[in-house]
UniProtKB/TrEMBL annotation:
<comment type="function">
    <text>Covalently attaches a chromophore to Cys residue(s) of phycobiliproteins.</text>
</comment>
<comment type="similarity">
    <text>Belongs to the CpcS/CpeS biliprotein lyase family.</text>
</comment>
<keyword id="KW-0456">Lyase</keyword>
<dbReference type="InterPro" id="IPR012674">
    <property type="entry name" value="Calycin"/>
</dbReference>
<dbReference type="Pfam" id="PF09367">
    <property type="entry name" value="CpeS"/>
</dbReference>
<dbReference type="InterPro" id="IPR018536">
    <property type="entry name" value="CpcS/CpeS"/>
</dbReference>
<dbReference type="GO" id="GO:0017006">
    <property type="term" value="P:protein-tetrapyrrole linkage"/>
</dbReference>
<protein>
    <recommendedName>
        <fullName>Chromophore lyase CpcS/CpeS</fullName>
        <ecNumber>4.-.-.-</ecNumber>
    </recommendedName>
</protein>
<dbReference type="GO" id="GO:0016829">
    <property type="term" value="F:lyase activity"/>
</dbReference>
Amino acid sequence: MPLEIADALSFFRLSCGRWTSQRSQHHLLHRRAEAGASFIVVEELLKGDARLAEIAQRNNESVERIVGGCWVRWSGSMAWDRAGESHEDQTMFGLIPSDDGGRSGLLLRDRGYAEKAPVAGQFHMDAENGLILTTDYEMMSSLERFWFAGPNLRLRTSTVQGLSNNASFCMETRMLDIAPPAVSANAEPAKTLAPFGW
């Protein structure tokens, strides 16, 4: 069941934990789909964390504007991988809201997914409490939408346009050997189902 989520920081907090992810990636040039799987760990970075100051410095932003963030690590594989090919990496995010509700603003990263330099993208939350991220790189752009179908199921769609044109759908399931975060007043079950979901 979709959740009511007050702001992007609450969305990040709900995302903390260990997840398994199943991915279907559609390569538009080849007109073929590729399956993949990964293990993801998300940890919260609290306001004042030295790593957030580093992200701010790399993106030429003031650390005082960052309300919080997260550290994400992942390890995965795709069906077309060559022998020895690795999909292990990590990144850190910092949120700078641009509205009073904390539902839109800048998402700072210490490094991008498509390019390894620091990058600032835009985030906003839609009417169904999905988190939408848009990032423009030098040679490509990406659009991602994340949403919770329940406290332990997160979904994502993404498109990449530029050098590599692809679209993907991912389903992430929380590993329940770790208790899920408590659903607070900022994240209560919604009364209606969202029409579209990660």
